[in-house]
What we know:
Elements: E1 9-11, E2 17-20, H1 40-43, E3 48-53, H2 68-74, E4 96-101, H3 109-126, E5 131-136, H4 142-153, E6 157-161, H5 181-188, E7 196-201, H6 209-216, E8 219-223, H7 227-243, E9 247-253, H8 275-283, E10 289-296, H9 307-325
Parallel strand pairs: 3-4, 3-5, 5-10, 6-7, 6-9, 7-8, 9-10
Antiparallel strand pairs: 1-2
Amino acid sequence: xTDPEATPRITGEGGIIGPVDASRVPRWVGEAxxxxxxxxxxxxxxxxxxxxxxxxxxxxxxxxxxxxxxxxRESSRLLRPYNPAVGVHPFGVRQVADAGDVAVNPFSIADAxxxxxxxxxxxxxxxxxxxxxxxxxxxxxxxxxxxAVHAVHGPVAVxxxxxxxxxxxxxxxxxxxxxxxxxRASEEGxxxxxxxxxxxxxxxxxxEADLTDxxxxxxxxxxxxxVEHLGTPGMIExxxxxxxxxxxxVSVDIxxxxxxxxxxxxxxxxxxxxxxxxxxxxxxxxxxxxxxxDIVEVAPPYDHAQVTGIAAAHVGYELLSALALGKx
Length: 328
Ligand code: MN
Ligand code: MN
């Protein structure tokens, strides 16, 4: 495994370079990239890139999401090349590659936001990448990622999976935190206020104004308490109705899952989705005009037996499958 060029890999259509061949190189051997995909330098170029953003200076409670990208990659070693739930080889029909991590400043949120926006922008414009899947990191990173996506696609609808609204104004006077990215994005005009939706919201708020503010910022709420009577088909329908054919950015805060399914996160709330429900809903993204996505708030210091890391790896796999199947 010392020479990446000599590593046996699964290949796809038209010379696509896929994951390391697990029948010839054991899954636990070698450096972890997402799903053992090639690095972007090994692939030469990529249609879809995975970008790690190991930043957690924006958290309001338990830190640790800076270790998220590495943990998700380590937890993704068992992903296999064919997705039978939707009938696609996600790494065989488009060149998918791991773009590594952004070297973010842990002492300056403003500096980190600029660096993340620059790195995402460089991939989307300079490197010819069409779609980005970012691995956080805390939810602060959604703002610079949305700015980079907006520069290419204009205002995008946001489907935001989270226990929390993340449209609060400030914490301790700070405007850029993991609880504020979607208020800032709405104020900046980079999201389409007619097409945004939160899914999985639950738990106590500061007051009723949290919800009226949120609505004015352009979001509708599909709370976790509705999951039981709507079921996954009802959730999928509600999302499709809100989003329509707009370009969509999907942001998955892993705390949308119940702490039973994702203990390794910074601000857990009881009563969340099961991983089966979340994965089923994400599969429907193949019918949306998906232009970018992130998976955030995976905090390995609170994880056990890779439970949260494995959930996040499968979330990434379904999002990449949706990108592979999506219309361009
Ligand atoms: Mn969040
Ligand atoms: Mn959250």
